[in-house]
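Protocol step 4 of 6.
Sequence for Alkaline phosphatase family protein (Amycolatopsis suaedae) entered exactly as in the expression construct, tag removed. Do not edit the line below.
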Amino acid sequence: MLLDGYPHLAEVMPSAMALLDVPGQVDTLGLGEADRVCVLLVDGLGWELLRDHAADAPVLTELAGRPLRVGYPSTTAAGLAAIGTGVASGEHGFTGYTFEVPGVGVVNALRWRSHEDGSDVRGLLTPQDAQPLTTTFARATAAGVTTSVVSGAEYARTALTQAVLRGGRYQGVYALGDLAAEVLRALGQPRSLCYAYHSQLDQLGHVYGPGSPAWRMQLRHVDRLVESIVDGLPPGGLLAVVADHGMVEIGEKLDLDDTPDLLAGVRAFGGEVRARHVYTEPGAQADVLAAWRATLGERAWVCSRDEAVEAGWFGPTVSDLARPRIGDVVAAACDRFGMVRELAEAVESSLVGQHGSLTSAEQLVPLALARG
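Step 5 output, C-alpha cells:
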C-alpha cells in the first residue's frame, strides 16, 4: 500500500543540492554531475497517466527513467512542502489539502483560509509558524548557490509560497513561454538551482478528468515546454521533471454529511475527497473508527492516527508539530471512490478528477532527466 522501494519526492531537492556542493546534502537519487540544475514540477503528472498517454508526450516519455513516490497525502500542499523542505509530511507538517491547526481550526493550506468560514487566517497562523523548518532554497542560498523559484506571478506573495518556498529569488511568470525563458535564463549562471512550477495540467484534470481530450491537449503543451527547455540546456545543465501527485477519475461518491453513521462523534473534517482527516469529540475516537470502518468497508483504508503514523503513512518521522494536524481517524480512498461533502465543499465535491490517497495512480510520479 505504501509502495516501499521507490524513492520519495522529498529526495529531489537534496539530491540536486548535493550536485552543487551544498554541505550536508547527499545525491540519493544518483543524478550524476551538473553545475546548474532545474527541478520542474508539473502539477498532476502521474507516472501511470504519462505511461497511458505516451503518444501525447514523446519527449517526457523518452526522458522518464523511473518513478518516485510522493508520500501521503498525495496532494499539492504536501508535495510542494516536500520540495521546499526535503522531508515528508510528518516532518514538514502539511498533512493535507486542509488540516486542523490547534488554536486556529481547520485551515485550507493552498488558500490560507479557514475551511469553516473562508476567513483569512494569516493573523492566527504565520507561514513561519505553519512550517518552521529551514527550506531547501534557504540552505542552497546560504551555501552560495544562485537560487530561484519560477512560478505563477499570482503565487508570489501567498502564504503557502512563504511557508515552503522562501529563501530563493521569486520570478513570477504568466504562461509557458516566459516559464521556459526564465528557466533558461536562470540556468545561464554556473552553480545555480532553479525550481519551476506548472499548474494547469492538474487544473484540467480536476475539471475534465485525467486523460480527457482537454487534459491530453494540455499534456502536449507541457511536453513542448519540456522540449524547449531541453533544447536550450547549457553544458553542465540538468533538468529534472517531477510531479506532486497523479490523479484518478472519481466513480462512486459518498456524501459524508448525508451519512449519519459517519457523523456521530465527529467535530470536524479535514483533508479532501480521496484523503480524509476526521477530528473526533473527546472520547469518541474508538467509536468513530469502528463506524467508519464498518460503513466504508473495502472502499477505503481507515486507521486511527496512531495506526497511520505507525504504518508510516506520513513518513518515517512525525513531529510534534505535525501529529495534532493528523485526524483522530484517517481514511484513504481505494479504487475510484470519493468521500465528498456536497454542500460544505461544493466545488471540491463536483470535480471529476481527484487525488490524495495511497493508490499507485496517485502516488507514483515520473523522474525525467535531461542533460545539456
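Step 6, annotate. The first helix runs from residue 12 to 19.
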